[in-house]
Amino acid sequence: MTASNERQAADTVVLVRPVAFHSNPETAASNAFQRPPEVADPAAEQAAAAIEFDGLVAALAGAGVATVVVRDCVEPATPDAVFPNNWLSLHADGTAVLYPMMAPSRRAERRRDVLELLSREHGFRVERVLDLSAHERDGRFLEGTGSMVLDRVNRVAYACLSPRTDAGVLAEAARLLDYEPLAFVAADEAGVPVYHTNVMMCIGSDFALVCEEAISDPGQRAAVRRRLEQGGHELVALDLGQLRSFAGNMLELADADGGRVLALSARALESLRPGQLRMLESRCRLLPVPVAAIEEGGGGSVRCMLAEVHLPRRA
Fold it and tell me: pTM value?
């Protein structure tokens, strides 16, 4: 691995304002966190999601985190566009990565115009674009920083394998980005594979939340713990109930003064035990936001709504 020049926490994030959010039938089978689509009212879901989205943008701005807000396109329909971190990651060496998505309706979320916007209007530099989407033809997927939780400082890509996270594509992405891949298998209390790593794991600058209970293999569990501790992270063990409450779906960010902000949902905050809360509050300013409609309809939470911008600035 080469030495990293990336900080763990970005000070800018991309968000996509939804225009037709609803529980997606194409994603329900592989996402146990998602409400069954047949019981949903799409119009009501979109109305609630729009309110929650604007609340998150306002909360981030109030905390001093810069936001780049992009409006979703009406056509083609992309009901999960509010989760841009699945198709895009942005890195300090100027690399942008476009990822292969399992659901056909999600593939239209990939938008080159977002990269152009970051360059043209926000002063970021994109030096190269790695497009891994061709793997979709072979039924192999890697859904961005949903599938991978990146320790950007120590250059480790943690990934729980699932229908949405292919070991081969993980290895390729890690090689191209100069990361060490660390793959494992994780499941919920019903034995259903955890669909995305970022619902069970969050890595901050010096801490990590992990639902170790979900990793049944003792060797894999020990390997994850050992590598995190080697990277200087104090571990917070989440239980399966907290996993279900999206306590793993947090993201550390930086404010304009370099202060640490931890974005999470109100539901995740409520699930934390006092000792866990004290540890996190000793390191970061906690920024809880209510996103219940997005959590229930889309099966993702606050972290899924944020694509961090680590790109260099133009001189």
Answer: 0.95
